[in-house]
Design a protein that fits this description.
Elements lengths: L16 H33 L2 H37 L3 H36 L4 H16 L1 H16 L5 H23 L3 H27 L13 E2 H33 L3 H37 L3 H26 L3 H6 L5 H14 L3 H16 L4 H26 L7 H19 L16 E2 L1
Antiparallel strand pairs: 1-2
């Protein structure tokens, strides 16, 4: 039985694949834009009202925080896939079991991850060879965010549940509220109270907690007759927990590898001083912002694939993959054509320092033209993950980030200088895209079948 009584849910097993993916991705895009605004507003505030040292500190702390939340992002992806497959098959009793299982796993793991993030902040920052002047502010920012990490974890868990049901609009609503709150608190804490990086971090965790609490209240009111969010109700289905981890753990490790890879590149960038680091940080945020439409289409492809795998519609999966690729390639060309010529003015918005601007322009001119390669890596990995294949996307990322980006970064810097080190991004994406594309064409990712074929329920109260 399907959920009734709401127009927010999208059944992707019927109708135009391109239309479903496009319109499902639009709220995801808006949500991703808002999440990037979180980071960009933080950078803008500290860059303009605190200084380049604080700008380098906030940017350097971000990949470390992302490293620790990667597991939960992976669990959210695993939950989305499992829920979307059962929803596509119309098995709402299994959707309820999946929701309970996902929240139990999240709550059990949240505390140790937050504590680990807090305690390891100092040693990790030292390993990144961050400029001494930026270490203190970066450690403060990271430890404050670590204390409130459960808010971000809870929001992402709620978003994963709703997206599995085909609802990409509601998470956007609460993220919008959190983003506006974050901007207001950033300005209040930094400009009025002069709290620096501490104020930026505090604003972030307050906003994230608000988005989590409001999302939980909404889910319980709207879908309470089918399932409820009960954070302290320990109920897990062993078989579903295994499936969520089977899909989500490789995705979490994939995100962690990307974070560690970013930290390794940061260590090389940091060797040229905080001005060069600050420029890299800002340009990286502009780059991420420009890539959001492709990321959103790829995320939509995961839910679309999951629902159609659950309904046994492999023919529609192929059509959806083609539609996702066409839309993503078109955007990658547009983004490069716009950002590369405007790289200088865009950097100027965040810093007036010539060194910071030059560093950011260098990065953008190397990275943006290579977006098409990243498009193949993202979309094909998301489709395979929606079908239950999570190992190959992990391996393609491992190849892309470590053998490609990190090794090439150090090699190019050593032999050709810092002006060429950012070519490592395109080289890494090429390696990952070749592996992902070859495996997709082999068709072996289809062998997992639908999770709905497994009917056994084993609950642990």
């Amino acid at each position: 039985m399907k959920l009734r009584g709401t127009a927010q849910l999208r059944d992707m097993t019927v109708g135009s694949p391109a239309e479903h993916i496009l319109f499902f991705s639009l709220p995801l895009l808006a949500g991703n834009v808002l999440q990037q605004l979180y980071n960009m507003v933080d950078s803008w505030v500290v860059g303009n009202f605190v200084g380049d040292t604080a700008l380098a500190a906030v940017g350097s702390a971000f990949p470390i925080i992302f490293l620790f939340v990667s597991l939960f992002i992976g669990l959210g992806i695993g939950s989305t896939v499992v829920i979307s497959q059962f929803y596509g098959a119309g098995e709402m009793n299994r959707v309820r079991d999946a929701v309970d299982t996902a929240y139990t796993a999240t709550m059990v793991l949240a505390v140790p991850i937050s504590v680990g993030s807090f305690l390891l902040s100092g040693p990790i920052l030292q390993m990144m060879k961050l400029d001494a002047a930026a270490v203190g502010p970066a450690k403060i920012y990271m430890q404050i965010v670590s204390v409130g990490l459960i808010g971000s974890i809870g929001y992402n868990t709620n978003a994963g549940i709703l997206q599995g049901l085909g609802n990409s609009k509601t998470p956007l609503l609460f993220l919008s509220i959190a983003t506006v709150l974050n901007i207001i608190l950033d300005l209040l804490f930094v400009i009025c109270f002069h709290w620096g990086t501490f104020g930026v971090a505090l604003a972030t965790i307050i906003a994230e907690w608000v988005s989590w609490v409001l999302g939980t209240i909404y889910i319980n009111r709207v879908y309470g007759d089918q399932f409820r969010i009960r954070p302290l109700h320990w109920r897990a289905d062993r078989r579903l927990l295994s499936q969520i981890f089977k899909i989500g753990l490789p995705a979490g490790i994939q995100n962690a590898l990307m974070a560690v890879g970013s930290m390794a590149v940061f260590a090389r960038v940091n060797a040229y001083g905080y001005g060069f680091t600050a420029g890299y940080n800002v340009a990286n945020k502009i780059d991420c912002f420009a890539f959001l439409p492709i990321q959103s289409i790829a995320n939509a492809a995961t839910t679309y694939t999951g629902q159609n795998i659950g309904a046994g519609r492999l023919d529609r999966v192929k059509l959806g993959t083609h539609a996702s690729m066409k839309m993503s390639i078109l955007w990658s060309v547009i983004a490069a054509a716009v950002v590369v010529p405007l790289a200088g003015p865009l950097m100027w918005l965040f810093s007036k320092s010539p060194e910071v601007i030059a560093s950011g322009v260098l990065y953008l001119r190397w990275v943006m033209p290579c977006y098409i390669l990243f498009t193949f890596l993202m979309v094909l990995g998301s489709v395979m993950r929606g079908a239950g294949e999570s190992v190959v996307p992990l391996l393609s990322t491992l190849l892309s980030v470590w053998l490609g980006r990190v090794v090439l970064c150090y090699f190019l810097d050593l032999h050709f200088g810092k002006e060429y080190m950012f070519a490592c991004f395109g080289g890494g994406w090429l390696l990952g895209a070749l592996l992902a594309g070859g495996y997709y064409l082999s068709g072996r990712w289809k062998r997992h079948g639908s999770l709905t074929e497994e009917k056994t329920v084993e609950n642990v109260e």
